[in-house]
Design goal:
By secondary structure, this protein is mainly beta. Strands 26-27-28-29-30-31-32 form a seven-stranded antiparallel sheet, with no helix packed on it. Strand 28 and strand 29 form a beta hairpin.
Amino acid sequence: MSAVIDLGEMRHGGDGDEPLPAPPRPPGRIARVVALGCLVLLAVTGASAPDRRPVPVRVPAPQGAAFVVLADRLMVADGPGTVGRGGRVVAGHRLPDGEPLWRFTLPAGDHVLGLDIAAGGLLVTSSPAGAGDTISTLLDPDTGASRWRRPGYPVATAAGGLLLESPRAAGAGSVLAVDPGTGAVRWTLPIPAQGVAYRTDGHGVTQLVLVSPDGRVSVHDAATGALTHAGRVPAAPDGVSYRYAQVVANLLLVDGAPGTVTAYGLDRLDARWTVPVQERAGLWFTDCAGMICLRDQVGGARTLDPATGRPAWADERWLGTAPVDGRLLAATPGTGLELNRWVLEPTTGRVLGRLGRWRLTGAVREPGALLGLRHLTGDRTLVGALDVPAVEARARAVLPGSWDACVDSGTVLVCLRPAGGLTIWPVGR
């Protein structure tokens, strides 16, 4: 097994080989004497000294498996790609040695949708085969024991709580707020057929916004469920549902007259501005680090000023943009899934720097958790830690072979092979 190579820092993501350091000067007489003494000492002790190089550890995992790291625990689950072939087992392993600790099997009919962390436990999201609510189950990371299990898709709140959303047709859905540690229900709200929109602050949900097809709007505090304020907007054009009814950049956007979208302030539900939009499939709005981005299936970046609704900037070269720690991470074509990654200033679209060519892995929403993978010659993979605010890519390791995804615990990299199977690579901090 090849050893991991720590490359130190690689700033600004250059794709070419780093320049080699200048050859060292010949040592002076004193240095030669010291070096000779060290060699003698090594000759005496080296025969009995064990090989202290860290050894990579293999962990069984199916193709497309989901996996997360929490402290000194690695937790692995059959991923969505294994639906129809099982997809019901979650296993816990100790880091860094990979020792199996426990196995948890979901009830018959359930398959794993994803893994996350909540209240110091492993949050497993699963779905019954056929019709049925998404199920959330919290497992103890040390034992695999189930702490609680409830219907609903999990959404984290800024105050450290957890919402479980169960949308249904005809306005029969609900959202429950639960204690993430115990699963105890704190409060519940019915949600209309339009669904629920969320106001966030970068740490989680702060408010829930419910919009009915007749134009009634209620805004609730995410920590208590209390009604903060209510008001009205124009009814849905078809009387059944809005095409847009979403919260973006602290504004409620709804479609009114054909071909227009109106923005309302969430604090008073006062109309701020109305803009024309092209009525075509695949057009939607997203929050771009405080700006409003218009998305479609064509690509490019178009932004609106949330204060006025006027166009702020546009750039057709970007394949897409995503907010990361107050910046925008943009991409242009590269090699296959390895795209050229750029960092933009959100309000102007100005290019702040280039991170290099990477395929993204890790968690975009967690500071310091975003990783990039790049294939190198000789069937090797460069793993880089991508610091978007600093516009810096720092090499973490060069691994032999090809890898689908990696997570970084701070002392080990855990990576998944395309054909399945995880490997724990000790890399240090």
